[in-house]
Amino acid sequence: MPWRNVVGSLFCFKIFGGRFQNNRMREVQLGSHTLRSDGVTVARIHMHDWFIFLLLVLIEFILNLSHPFYRYVGKDMMTDLKFPFKDNTVPFWAVHIYAVLLPIAVFLFVYWRRKDVYDLHHAILGLLYSVLVTAVITDAIKIAVGRPRPNFFWRCFPDGKDVYDKLGNVVCHGDEHVIKEGHKSFPSGHTSLSFAGLGFLSLYLSGKIKAFDQRGHIAKLCIVFLPLLFAALVGISRVDDYWHHWQDVFAGGLLGLVISTFCYLQFFPPPYKSQGWGPYAYFRELDMLATNTRPPTNGTFVVNQEDVERQTGNEGDDRSNGRFLLLSTDSNSCLSMQEIEIESETEGK
Asked: How far apart are CA 268 and CA 308, in angstroms?
């Protein structure tokens, strides 16, 4: 049957001994990100996540306006609540710098090196969720518990003259905002947010540097522990400043670390896994590419050249439209490059 009407050119390439699969596997093992991804498309896929994020921001705003539970504080309890009213060693505005902006700076550096928008988007989204969810839970517990801070006496009685009602409860005459903050001791917000942000960063770094590759490089563990050490020192400063009891700091650190772990595992494999260096989305794209290029039993398979070039970032010119790649995994065969004419109509009947 004669064939006419050219509809596309087929390129035939020889691949010796499965070299294509071996090279791809080597890229995965080395952590080389070769898939090109569209940041707008990735953000659109997770649009509902960003919408929920905005709702959490609104909830956090409402919680900050709410009054905590004013727990009964008797005169005999003031013995443990009469510590000095000191300034914060770590101001609250600084928490957002080292717990949010610092990790994002690390994410941007990794993106500059690997150009993987999947990794950048999921790292930022996971970090923001980690910090925001921790903040919402922390403030909700603060309001519900209403535990007095160790320096509550001086918040309630700035002149040092304590006053109690007939039931023995305190009658504060200090600044209303200062008294309100005095009932927000449990858990520690500085500590929980520090471990939420820096804990996420620690997990991210452990995956990127392959800290658990079973090669025994202690220096990698030092890098992983450094953010956690800083978060722990922030927690200790809260006790030293008499703004929190040690139980507040312990609970806050545990809360932030647990939430950061959950948020990280939503987007990234565990760092001790062989694929722990990249996000789940990247490996899903690899699986889709491998599925589209899976060879049949005869050792050859056809893939759309536009798909491969788009995924690997090697776009050709406009003449590549409609072109396919015919690949062979048989090391003993070599297919020559040729143009095949295809006719959609048979000659006259």
From this structure: 25
Q: What is the CA radius of gyration of the chain?
A: 30
Contact 216, 125 (CB under 8 A): no
With beta carbons less than 8 A apart as the criterion, state whether 30 and 346 touch. Answer: no
Q: Are 317 and 59 in contact (CB under 8 A)?
A: no
Quote the number of domains for the chain.
1
- Residue 226 located in a structural domain: yes
Cis bond before residue 158 (omega within 30° of 0): no
Alpha-carbon distance of 323 to 326, in angstroms, equals 10
Q: Identify the sign of the CA torsion 177, 182, 184, 188.
A: positive
8 A C-beta contact, residue 152 and residue 248:
no
Instruction: Please report whether residue 342 resides in a domain.
Output: no
Q: Which helix (H) or strand (E) holds 304?
A: strand 300-304
Residue 153 lies in a domain: yes
- By residue range, what is the domain housing residue 211? 65-277
- The residues annotated with a catalytic role in the active site are 190, 244
Q: Which residues are bridge partners to 10 per DSSP?
A: 324, 338
Digitized pLDDT (tens) for each residue of the chain, 349 residues in all: 444 443 343 343 343 344 444 544 444 444 444 445 556 666 677 788 889 999 999 999 999 999 999 999 988 888 899 999 999 999 999 999 999 999 999 999 998 988 878 889 899 999 999 999 999 999 999 999 999 999 999 999 999 888 999 888 999 998 999 999 999 999 999 999 999 999 999 999 999 888 888 887 888 889 999 999 999 999 999 999 999 999 999 999 999 999 999 999 999 998 888 777 777 766 776 777 667 655 554 444 444 445 444 444 444 444 444 444 444 444 344 443 444 344 444 444 4
The confidence score (pLDDT) of residue 273 equals 82
Structure tokens at 136: 């919402």
User: Which residues are bridge partners to 12 per DSSP?
Assistant: 326
Domain assignment present for residue 6? The answer is: no
Tell me the whole-structure pTM to 2 decimals: 0.72
Assess contact for 181 and 152: CB atoms under 8 A: no
User: With 0-12 CB in 10 A as exposed, 13-18 as middle and 19+ as buried, what is 205?
Assistant: buried
